[in-house]
Each structure stands twice: as C-alpha cells, then as structure tokens.
Amino acid sequence: MRIATWNVNSVSARLPRLLPWLEDTTPDVVALQETKCAAGAFPHLPLQAMGYEVLAAGDGRWNGVAILSKLGIAEPVTDLPGHSEARLAAAQCGPLHVTSVYVPNGRAPADAQYPYKLDWLAALRARLEALDPTQPMVIMGDFNVAPTDDDVWDIRAFAGSTHVTAPERAGIQALLDWGLIDLPARPGKGDHPFTYWDYRAGMFHKDLGMRIDLVLATPAIRVRDAYVDREARKGKLPSDHAPVVVDIDL
DNA sequence: ATGTCATCTTAGAGATGA
Description:
single chain, 6-stranded mixed sheet, 20% helix, DNA-binding
C-alpha cells in the first residue's frame, strides 16, 4: 500500500502537476493541504476518473485539506472542536485510518497566530483520545514545525522565528508521546529530507529547505520505504512543497 | 533574507498570506 502527503498550494492551480503525478506515482491514499478552494469547487471529476474517492474540506481562498482514497472513505470528519478553519480531514480508508492536517503557520512568535497555532496542535492532540494507538493510523500533512534543528537548512537563520520554537516542537512531541512515530524519509537530494523550499531567492536550487511535512504513524504499520519526491518540486509551476511518499504493509 | 506564487477585489494593480 502506498500513501502520500502533499501541500499543493492550490489544487486548482496545481491540477496540471497533480494529475500526472498521481498517474506516475499511483498512491492508494493521498493527503492534500492548502487546496485553497471551497469544498464545492473541488475538482472531483478528474480524481474520481482516476479511481479516487474524495473527502475535501475548504474555506475558499485560504487553507483547505483533502483525502484522496482508492480504498474508500468511511467515517469522514472535517471539523476540529474549537477551530473553524478547514485544516483537518480524517477518514477510515480501508484498513488505515488517515488524517490530513494543515497546521497554522503562526507567522511570528509575537503574532496572535502563534498561540492559535499552539492551540490548534493541542486540539489535534486532544482528538487522539478518541482513537486507538494500537490500530493502523497515520496523521500526515504540513505541520509547519521543523521537529529538530537538522530539519532546517541553518538553525541560526531561524532565531526569533516560528517553526523551530520549543512550544511548537512540544506540540509535535505530544503527538509522538501518544504513540505516533515520525517516519524518516529518504531525502530527494543532500543529507536532509527537506519537504519545503521558499519560491524566492533560489532556495530550492541551493537546497535551503525545511522538513515540515511529516508522516506520523502508529507502530502497527510496517514501513517498506519512505522518500521525498523532489522531482515534483522541479519544473513548471510547482508547489513550494514536495510530496512525501511512503510504502507500507499492515 | 527574500529574487515567487496564488487568490481576491473588482476590471488593473494592490493587498494578503505563505
């Protein structure tokens, strides 16, 4: 079984990249983030034509998450208590419980978005109480947190920035403490499996990136392979994120 | 540290967020 997560930075704008990528990569389940379209405007038809059932949550201009599944969509959930933005989609996809998350960016530690980000992570953790860590389950998506200093190109460049602060990392650690494992992925290039590179300043070509797109899995899942698909970040009008692809056995 | 991109407003370029 092949699963993947990808922040596409607009599913409409990325459709010319997404559809061939699905054709080539043939994942069974895909978590998408930053779809940036209302649920009613989601491009269901071309995805259904490829054999995917779709669960989409959308606000319109910002945010938006989805799950594409060839193994069915059961028990769909798109709300997170206390939080109205479209940042979570969860469903049972055959034998695997899947959650697609787009954690708030936080903007800056002094910004009101920063405590909102920490609250959101706490709500995600609280949601786990209703789930079973012995069952096959993944939470994957754009967490907007680099779990360790090695997950950014130069920690010194992040002084005073979000994504690397102790409270944000504690929010991720709380998920791991519940019983999830941060799956290590093979990097597409270099030593670090970065998943995001800013569009500006040639950051991608200099491999000045961040590992902020994570696949967190319960131990019931056996991992055969996991890699960052750096090729998808190249070429014409890419997303600023690369997909993470994981081959698993249950 | 920022050389880009996508979207919305509202009909052209500016604001916003990442």
